[in-house]
Amino acid sequence: MIPDLDYKIGISVYSTNFAGIGGKIRVSPDDFQVRELISTKAENSIGDQDGYAVYKLKKKNIDTNHALSGIFAKKGIRLKSLGLKDASAVTEQFVCSGNKGHAIENFSTDKYALEKIGYVKKPLSKKDMIGNHFKIKISECSNILSSFTEYDKILNFYGYQRFGSKRAVTHLIGKALLNRDFKKAIDLILCFTSVCDSKENTEIREKLSDTENYEKYFDQVPPQMDVERIVLKEMIDHGEPIRAIRKIPISLRRFYIQAYQSFIFNLSLSSAFLDGENLFEAESGDVCFDFNGTIGKYVKGLDQNLALPFVGYSYYKKTRFDYHISKILQQEEISPKDFFIKEMQEISSEGGFRQAAIHCSDYSAYDDTVEFSLSRGSFATILLREIMKPQDPIAAGF
After folding, report:
1. pTM
2. Does residue 319 share a domain with residue 271?
3. How far is 239 from 232, CA to CA, in rounded Å?
4. From CA 226, how far away is CA 222, in angstroms rounded?
5. Do 114 and 205 have their domain in common?
6. β-strands 112-120, 52-60 pairing
């Protein structure tokens, strides 16, 4: 049975026949370990010659953005990550300085450690990150983990984190922005509640549903609701929704749009699978990625991976998936041109393509532990979803 939360983020199918082992993940942060993988070329480019400093950031119980903000506050150096790693895990990733000659030595706190490993002539970028290796313990599960063999038959859905996990709202905010309904976007940021959210958070959000309470309850909004505090302060001072939205960091505003695109992608992938489309092999006329990640048309005999459109203002209609995508856009009352936002052009998105299936390597399972590597952009939680088949993803640690 598909959980309600899955439907809310556009996932309405399982692509494997495995019965599921149940259980929980993230009982302890040490149960979920992630190690970032970069290309051999990028790894070989790191040396001891002066240039842009490269570090390994190891962290626990803090997400990447907050760790980098803490490093800047304490050491005055801005570092860029190649990918984002969430808080509920032990993670290791590469971060790089954007300026030459401003390096710091090894530095640590109780939540993260920064280790300088060398220099590069050109700053590392997201393109240098090729994937992640995971080692995950599944607690309280049945003993049939080792019999799961369908890791090459998993659809490349966007995972729960993309939508806010227990408070699945980011895609709804994105749609409001596409509709130029900035007041609704503010309401969703401040007031959207979930049965999985804490009692304290729900209570403060319910109070903020009345605009007259903004100033009255501002000081009661906890520090971890940093985006809410930014928006509230601007609404109290000026009362203009579009101005308040613009106060949100641009990376997060773009993320809202991407979350809605991810929702459309999940819906499209679910619909195509239910309709019997072959999503694990490319066919003549398909758009594909080659082993270098370069997009192009299907060529018989080449090692290519099927791709589906990721809808934006440059949406490419000439694929066998347009029937499903166009139908979903019609139901959502959204068109590709809506992704060019004249009122806030900096968050417009032209779209692109995404692999239809997860490409998993180095897979192994023993006792209650599973290890595997995934290419950049694929979610470990989606693979775990197929292994565990959780009745309640949030209770299961997703």
Report:
1. 0.90
2. yes
3. 9
4. 8
5. no
6. antiparallel
226-237 and 182-191 helices cross at what angle (nearest 10)? 130
Round to whole Å and give the CA distance between 206 and 166. Answer: 17
Half-sphere exposure of 398 toward its Cβ, with a 13 Å CA cutoff? Answer: 32
**Do 213 and 296 share a structural domain?**
yes
To the nearest whole number, what is the mean pLDDT of the chain? 93
SS3 of 309, please? strand
Domain membership flag for residue 215: yes
| Residue 383 resides in a domain | no
CATH of the domain at 274: 1.10.1510.30
Do 313 and 349 touch, CB atoms closer than 8 A?
yes
**138 near 384, Cβ under 8 Å?**
yes
- Nearest residue to 279 (alpha-carbon basis) of 259, 300, 265, 291: 265
- Torsion sign across C-alpha atoms 352, 293, 153, 14: negative
User: Is there a single domain that holds both residue 167 and residue 282?
Assistant: yes
The strand pairing partners of 296, in sequence order, are 288
Structural domain boundaries, residue 109: 31-132
Which pLDDT score is estimated for 229?
94
pLDDT > 90? residue 114: yes
**pLDDT digits over 12-49, tens only?**
999 999 999 999 999 998 999 999 999 999 999 999 88
Residue 118, token pair as written in the block = 């060398």
Q: Please check whether residues 126 and 171 belong to one and the same domain.
A: no
